[in-house]
Structures are given as structure tokens and as C-alpha cells.
């Protein structure tokens, strides 16, 4: 019991560390906008400054929404984990790396949205991030002793999101005129996962809390 309690506290400290990484990353997003205030004398008004730098404003909002969404999914994936586990830790550290890196390709979207490398970095980072969380679900399905017993881990929904992101990446690279609209395929991820469960003759074990 003492060993399990030690692992429980270790997991709680680790999740606090991961949450701190996300909090810092999402806070740093605003720094490029703060730096714009030093240029206010170069514009006739604040409105003019915002209009001239609207790409940076949209990049900030996009990064905030994407990172917040990924954090909510991560929270849902690990909220029933009860003890520390090396596999889960490594996957979450890799996931945290994608969160810290994500503002960079998002800024590139504002500056060079049509560039193929920009699309690869932006969507590819989301693919890696979502894959990490899906693999966490796989670990929890195979090792339910890591949870508090109330977990209903289901990697199918994560896998569906990864598949749709990969398909969106292929489409936007193959047909550049589609821009980032193929990301709307994510709306089909949950229906695809539910269809998979029906075809397998079972019910989904859990839906993402972000639905």
C-alpha cells in the first residue's frame, strides 16, 4: 500500500508539472502581441495597428484554441490514472513537447499559410500530439490496474482523430487550393468511431469530454 501511495503522489506531481508546462506555453502566446504595443507610435490608431497585424492576432487565437482543446483531451485521458507509470509519463512528456512547439507552426500559418512545410509542421504537430494521447488510452486499456477503477479508456476515438488529421494533411498537401479546410474532417471523427464500435458489435466505452 505504501508503494502504491508513493506512486500515486508521484503521478499527481507529474500531472501538476505537465499542467504547468501547458499554462506557461499558452501564456507565452500573447508575447508577440504585447511586443506590438511598442510600435503604436507608427500607426494612426490602435485600430490601425490591429488591422495591420491581424494575422498575428488570429495566430494567437488559433494557438490558444488548439492548445486548450488538446489540454482538455489530455485531462480526460488521464483523469482516472491513479499511480505513476513510466509509459504514461514518457507519452505525456512527448505530448508536452508538441504543446510547447505548436505556437511556432501556428505563427507560420499567419506568415506563410500556403507553404507546404508550414502545413506539414502545423497539422503534423497535431497528429503527433493526438497520437500520444491515443497511446495513453491504449496503455490504460491494457493495464487497468493503473487507474482508480472508474476509467473507461477508449483509444478508438483518438485513433479516429489521428486518421482524420492524416487524411486532412494528405489532402491539403495534394490539393493546396483546399488550404486548411480539410481539417473540418475532424467533425467526422466521432461518427466514424461510433460506426466502428457498431460494426464491432459493441458500444463505445467513453466519449471525449470535449464533445
From TrEMBL:
Keywords: Ion channel, Ion transport, Membrane, Potassium, Potassium channel, Potassium transport, Transmembrane, Transmembrane helix, Transport. Its main location: membrane. It catalyses: K(+)(in) = K(+)(out). One of its GO terms (cellular component) is membrane. The keyword Nucleus does not apply. Pfam families: TMEM175 (PF06736). It is found in: Membrane. It is a multi-pass membrane protein. GO terms for molecular function: potassium channel activity; proton channel activity. The chain crosses the membrane at residues 14-34, 55-72, 92-113, 162-189. InterPro entries: TMEM175-like (IPR010617). Belongs to the TMEM175 family. This is DUF1211 domain-containing protein.
Amino acid at each position: 500500500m505504501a508503494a502504491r501511495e508513493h506512486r500515486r503522489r508521484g503521478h499527481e506531481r507529474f500531472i501538476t508539472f505537465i499542467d504547468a508546462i501547458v499554462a506557461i506555453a499558452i501564456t507565452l502566446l500573447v508575447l508577440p502581441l504585447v511586443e506590438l504595443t511598442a510600435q503604436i507610435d507608427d500607426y494612426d490608431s490602435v485600430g490601425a495597428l490591429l488591422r495591420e497585424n491581424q494575422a498575428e492576432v488570429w495566430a494567437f487565437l488559433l494557438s490558444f484554441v488548439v492548445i486548450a482543446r488538446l489540454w482538455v483531451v489530455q485531462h480526460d485521458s488521464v483523469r482516472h490514472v491513479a499511480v505513476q507509470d513510466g509509459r504514461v509519463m514518457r507519452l505525456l512528456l512527448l505530448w508536452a513537447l508538441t504543446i510547447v512547439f505548436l505556437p511556432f507552426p501556428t505563427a507560420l500559418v499567419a506568415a506563410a499559410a500556403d507553404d507546404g512545410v508550414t502545413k506539414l509542421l502545423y497539422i503534423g504537430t497535431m497528429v503527433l500530439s493526438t497520437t500520444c494521447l491515443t497511446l495513453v488510452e491504449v496503455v490504460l486499456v491494457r493495464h487497468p490496474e493503473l487507474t482508480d477503477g472508474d476509467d473507461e479508456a477508449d483509444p478508438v476515438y483518438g485513433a479516429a482523430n489521428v486518421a482524420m488529421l492524416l487524411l486532412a494533411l494528405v489532402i491539403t498537401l495534394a490539393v493546396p487550393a483546399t488550404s486548411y479546410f480539410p481539417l473540418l474532417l475532424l467533425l467526422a471523427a466521432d461518427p466514424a468511431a461510433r460506426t466502428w464500435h457498431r460494426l464491432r458489435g459493441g458500444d463505445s466505452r467513453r466519449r471525449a469530454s470535449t464533445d
